[in-house]
Amino acid sequence: MRARLTNGRLLGQRRRHREGPSGVAANLWRVRRSAISAVLVLAAVAAAGAGARVAALYFLLAAIVVVALAALSFFSELLEGSADAEAGAIYVGLSTLALVLLVLGAAVRSNTLADQAVPALGLSSLVAALVLLGVQLAVWSSLRLSRYRLVNAQHRPAPDV
Known about the structure:
This protein has helices at about 25-50, 55-80, 90-110, 120-155.
């Protein structure tokens, strides 16, 4: 007799995915990765604008980790073939460029002394990374929202008049 897991599957059997890469959970996970990255970069820009240099640096370091994780997961989905067919490569490219800009901004920011102003490159790279992450969110929302509206409009029953 073979050992069973708690959900009734046999040990060693792979789970079958009921939803494809365009399932609701997969799409929400993609937007959460991008939204968390954008929020951390926005917090770093806001902290830099308020003059809290230490907080801006910590937000920036946290954003680097999150954006690197998102870029690697987008790339792994692209390699596995489970990435979004329309924009999988765009997500990888935008995340990677944003990561490069964030690392550049952190490098410029970390080498300034406490009594000196942060060079313009430090803030400009953060703003450019924020724009790239915003473009990524705009691509996601334009593909998903318009497709869902079209599909829902086609599948609605006609009103009985």
